[in-house]
Amino acid sequence: MKKPIVRLFFLTAITTFLYSCTNDTNDADAKAESQQFKIINVTNHDGKPFSTGPKSSSMTGKYVDNPGGGVMMQAFYWDVPAGGNWWNTVKGKVTAWGNAGIGSIWLPPASKAQNGAFSMGYDPTDYFDFGDYNQNGSTETRFGSKTELVSLITAAHTENIKVYADIVINHNSGGQSEANPYTGTNTWTNFSGVASGKFTRNYNDFYKNSYGNNDEGSFGGFPDLCHANPHVQDWLWLRADGVGKYYKNTMKFDGWRFDYVKGFGPWVVNAWNANVGGFSVGEYWDSNVNTLEWWANNANSSVFDFACYYKMNDAFDGNNLALLNDDMMWKRNPYKAVTFVTNHDTDEIWNKLLAYSYILTHEGYPTIFYRDYEEWLDKNKLNNLIWIHNNKATGTTSILYSDNDEYVARRNGYNGNPGLVVYINNSDVWQERWIQTNWANTQIKDFTGNSTWYPTTQADKWVKIQCPPKGYSIWSINQ
């Protein structure tokens, strides 16, 4: 009666052996296929993370500089609720944001604009009215009072979160009509009656005037501020009580987001930065990476990486992840590139979580959009990506594999931090791929929890990892 049992055991052993051989052969073939992809070493530098300059004067130390650099929150969206409560709304969130690893917040234009309590601030009238003067139909701005703004900034600094002001200096709005000898008409360029009494302006402070007919660009028919005029320079960045230094030293802003920098020469932001200081990023809305690099270098400023934005849109929504191999600002200079998935002006990318998994594992300074975080996406998943960015996204970048629906990249680590491997899968099925890590004979895991594998890398640093459909996995040393 024992012979059938022996025969069954023998057949089972043979089947297991044959399956193992077949599986090993398949793995060898899959590894060989991956080895055909020539690794692209995207960046070449010493590996230091993105820096936003000196820390805020925090006494609590809840947020400290981390291995991966910072993450910015765009703390508004277009047409946030009117009624003067937005500063209080944001203040109520900064503790949670700080605990999640957010290192800075970008606020909307804070000063009084032409539409008063209804304006989003991009039509500025009085740069020194933060909601404490009764002009343009209201005392408070759409977002609140000066007292509430100061309270918000103070609360953010308590969490060691930096606060960036949105600066609109291409154009003004809300002036009174005056005769203009340069146009032979009346123009809305009389800002002599601004309630603060600071930075009064008239027709000679706007194009066309004695300094020329125009600069690089105008916006929406608004009076176009003339930065060549010494009076304008004085009040914007030179005077100790001018806009830049007042915002920094009195209001305690830590940096600047410059609006519509296509409208004036990069020397303007360069001069502002040289005289005022603080972190700066410009909104140069252009997908041409050569233009972005030119502006960033001449402005001595970071720039929003619109080249990356449009490539992500084409890659994720067009199902061609190989487009992520293309040129972007963060690849040219990761220390001057601010990456983003959505902002208050543009919201085209559909596969947003894939896009966030990209910018929060790659180089540059990633920005999270308020509504994505607070309303539209899974906050837990975004918090997980923020943690991974802050703790694991270190060093230079190498692309390990890409095709239509798969993309694998490696951060090569810095200063003892091992870095990571990110695997993005835009297909409808689970995918597996052999890739070369920086780690030999080391157990790794997926820090997103999307995969339950705990593979060990081979002596040659190769390992097989997996990724869920329409998802991502992010791997590093299991420690």
From TrEMBL:
Cofactor dependency: Ca(2+)
Signal peptide coordinates: none
Positions contributing to Ca(2+) 1 binding: N170
Binding site for Ca(2+) 3: D405
GO molecular function: alpha-amylase activity; calcium ion binding
Domain annotation Glycosyl hydrolase family 13 catalytic: ranges: 70-386
NCBIfam families: PRK09441.1-3 (NF006970)
Protein name: Alpha-amylase
Species this protein is from: Flavobacterium defluvii
